[in-house]
Amino acid sequence: MNLGQYLDNEKIILESDIIVKLENFASLLYEWNQIHNLTGAKTIDAIYVNIIDSLFPLTFIDRPKTLLDVGTGAGFPGLVLAIALPQTEVVLAEPLKKRVSFLKYAAMDLGLSNVSVEAKRVEKVEHEAFELISSRAVTNTKLLLDLTENISNGKTEYLFYKGSRVFDEIEDVQHQLVYDIVQKNQRNYLYIKNEQ
User: Fold this and answer.
1) Positive or negative CA dihedral for 166, 68, 87, 32?
2) What is the pLDDT of residue 152?
3) Would residue 43 be called left, alpha or beta, if left means φ above 0 and alpha means ψ between -120 and 50 degrees?
4) Most CB contacts within 10 A, which of 87, 92, 97, 184?
5) CB of 81 closer than 8 Å to CB of 90
């Protein structure tokens, strides 16, 4: 299946030039992954599955003007969202050097002028409050909220890509949050909405 078919199956509508950039990203990641072991997604199809996982929230979230992705790794979801949201200023926070090198190269190669890469842990990032903070497979929800406290405010929304533990994690913080959990296969997308 090509990426366009995957997108059609999930009812994710993107312009053709964005789909081409996503395919180019997949090829680039596949090549780099042969040498640098950046992700467990070892085939183009596996990379496409991760791209779809990253993009699926576009079917239910508001489009942010600014986005911080915590622990971007090989580009999921932050770099993928940056490709799909060219009007959004995207900051990718990733402390691991080989992944930082890939993210910087990919952003340059794909012509993503909306992306900057911070080669540091998220608690060291200095920026005005982001409209959306995303994270996949980094740490638990409460710690993510604590670590991003200095770069968020009452208008910040959060999009955390979680597994089955999301229901336990949300118990610690649910009394102070407005949120939805959108389930798709084994993925639980935790969408924490702003207080406005």
Assistant:
1) negative
2) 94
3) beta
4) 92
5) yes
Distance CA 2, CA 114 (A): 26
Strands 187-193 and 178-184: antiparallel
Pairwise CA distance, residues 161 & 182, whole Å: 10
Orientation angle between helical segments 16-36 and 97-109, nearest 10 degrees: 150
Q: Please report the domains of the chain, with CATH numbers, ordered by start residue.
A: 3-193 (3.40.50.150)
**Which residues have CB under 8 Å from 91's CB, separation 6+?**
66, 67, 68, 69, 115, 116, 117, 118, 125, 127, 130
pLDDT tens digit at each of 196 positions of the chain = 899 999 999 999 999 999 999 999 999 999 999 999 999 999 999 999 999 999 999 999 999 999 999 999 999 999 999 999 999 999 999 999 999 999 999 999 999 999 999 999 999 999 999 999 999 988 889 999 999 999 999 899 999 999 989 988 888 787 778 899 999 989 999 999 976 5
Where do the DSSP E strands lie in 96-184? Answer: 115-118, 132-136, 157-162, 178-184
Distance CA 74, CA 5 (A): 23
Cα 62 to Cα 10, 158, 191: the distances in Å are: 18, 11, 10
Q: 10 Å Cβ neighbour count for 40? A: 9
**From residue 82, how far is each of 1, 27, 44, 48, 125 by CA, in Å?**
23, 17, 19, 16, 18
